[in-house]
Amino acid sequence: MEITEIIVYFRSTIEIKFDNHKSILIDGEWTTTPAFYANIISIKKWKKPFDNVLVTELEKKEIIDKTIKYSRKNGPLPIYFD
């Protein structure tokens, strides 16, 4: 599962798209630093059509790790989780 794109929606949501055709919305806050501080507890389930599948703890850790690395290398801005 590799990230293909990160999209920033407004100042409070990002969408992370993966090469397995799954994507997830994560809530947080885009600060003036500029950086996005993502809320870990918002990582619960995939976007449609996989919305009936909950994200496992292992997937959550993988999403966090890969998102941090991807955001540092490819942008659009650094992403931190809290």
Would you give an account of this structure?
- The chain is of the alpha+beta class.
- It contains one helix and five strands.
- Strands 1-2-3-4-5 form a five-stranded mixed beta sheet.
- The longest helix is centred in the last third of the chain and has 18 residues, at 57-74.
Short synopsis of the structure:
The protein is an alpha+beta fold and 82 residues long.
* Percentage of residues in strands: 35-45%
Please give the number of β-strands: 5
Rg calc: 12 Å
Tally of alpha and pi helices: 1
Give the ordered list of helices and strands. EEEEHE
Shape: globular
- Helical proportion? 10-25%
Calculate the mean pLDDT score and round it: 94
Look at the helices and sheets and give the structural class: alpha+beta
Task: Give the termini distance in whole angstroms.
Answer: 22 Å
Major sheet summary line: 5 strands, mixed
Which strand order do you get reading across the main beta sheet? Answer: 1-2-3-4-5
